[in-house]
Amino acid sequence: MLIAGSAVHDLLPIASTVADLLERVDVLQLLEEARAASPRWHVEDLRWEGDGSGPSLLAPIDLQVVKACGVTFAGSMLERVIEERCMGDATRAADVRAELADALGTELADVKPGGPEAERVRRELLERGWWSQYLEVGIGRDPEVFTKAPLLSAVGSGGAIGIPDFSSWNNPEPELVLIVRSTGEIVGATLGNDVNLRDVEGRSALLLGKAKDNNRSTAIGPVIRLFDETFTVDDARQVEISLEVCGTDGYWLEGVNDVSALSRSFEALVEATAGRHHQYPDGFALFTGTLFAPTQDRDESGHGFTHRMGDQVQIRAEELGSLWNVVGRTEDLPPWDYGIRSLWSDLSRLRKEAHLEAR
């Protein structure tokens, strides 16, 4: 669907899937033509997921693969190193954080990945025994790129996000998400929450899949904003993303992810994801990483932040809207049971209905 002001237009007559639509080189012209027609709904008709009283606002992607780049900001890179050295134990984080600051002796935000200064820092930390796989991808030649979620598994704004019962140290990750065509062209952007299990990945980077890909562990939305003369890819580089977490216990956490502080360009992240080495025929959504890593204590001093059930998480950007979700226990939330077969079945049914209406 297309949201234009308060009008909501049905785009199914134009393209069967979002992936189909975004592969069209004339997509902006098609959307302008759609705006000229009478809307099927209005914004006030939309409902949060599961409300049952109207159309639900789902994640604004479908057949695109959900990829993610990690360790793309100096601040969050250091937090990954801390997780690793803590072996996932939150009680050790404050002490390790202080040790790391002493060992570095330099501001990593100013170090260009893959450059001579990065190599100097690498040698120094090796001598101190402080080199880490997270520093390797943070300031080394190659960025971290991983598959965040299967097709159709992301939840949209209003959907519950899940923390599994095996995690006791976790946090939201507010990120800019790039929307990329099969050709590698970046065509738009949206917001994302790369729900993160710090204790799981902290025990071993080989547990990345277990830490990142669980039921309702990916939120994307509220909508995709395509690049045009009013909002360009260069505008997206300057987006400031705010985060608010409001707990049922009265706890309040605020944070900011300044996209301009990315240590690598959008183009470098896309190039590392797709090219002659890897193709995505239906395009992909690419989480670009987060500057935000919460260290504010929630319970005991030195234990930092972790989610509680019922936390309301709001990720906002003036240019992209608001992605709002409530935290629940993964195992107790509705399971992911709508896959590609279900999508194809529904599309087939809708085409038949449209054909009968046309007759």
Describe what is shown at a glance:
The chain has helices at about 20-25, 25-35, 75-85, 95-105, 115-130, 135-140, 200-205, 210, 235, 265-275, 340-359; strands at about 1-5, 5-10, 40, 65-70, 145-150, 160-165, 170, 175-180, 185-195, 195, 220-225, 240-245, 250-260, 285, 310-315, 320-330. It is of the alpha+beta class and about 350 residues long.
Secondary structure topology:
Blueprint (H helix, E strand, L loop, with lengths): L1 E3 L2 E3 L8 H6 L3 H10 L4 E2 L22 E6 L3 H13 L6 H12 L11 H13 L4 H7 L4 E6 L10 E4 L6 E2 L2 E7 L5 E9 L1 E2 H6 L4 H5 L5 E9 L6 H4 L3 E7 L5 E7 L7 H8 L10 E4 L24 E6 L3 E9 L10 H19 L1
Parallel strand pairs: 4-14, 6-16
Antiparallel strand pairs: 1-2, 2-3, 4-5, 7-10, 8-9, 8-14, 9-11, 12-13, 12-15, 15-16
Helix pairs in contact: 3-4, 3-6
Please provide a written account of the structure.
There is one protein chain. With 359 residues, this protein is an alpha+beta fold. The chain has 11 helices and 16 strands. The protein has helices spanning 18-23, 27-36, 74-86, 93-104, 116-128, 133-139, 198-203, 208-212, 233-236, 266-273, 340-358; strands spanning 2-4, 7-9, 41-42, 65-70, 144-149, 160-163, 170-171, 174-180, 186-194, 196-197, 218-226, 240-246, 252-258, 284-287, 312-317, 321-329. A 6-stranded mixed sheet has the order 5-4-14-8-9-11, with helices on one face. The chain has a 5-stranded mixed sheet with strand order 6-16-15-12-13, with no helix packed on it. Helix 3 crosses helix 4 (93-104) and helix 3 packs antiparallel against helix 6. The longest helix is centred in the last third of the chain and has 19 residues, at 340-358. The protein starts with a strand and ends with a helix. The relative contact order is 0.17. The mean pLDDT is 89.
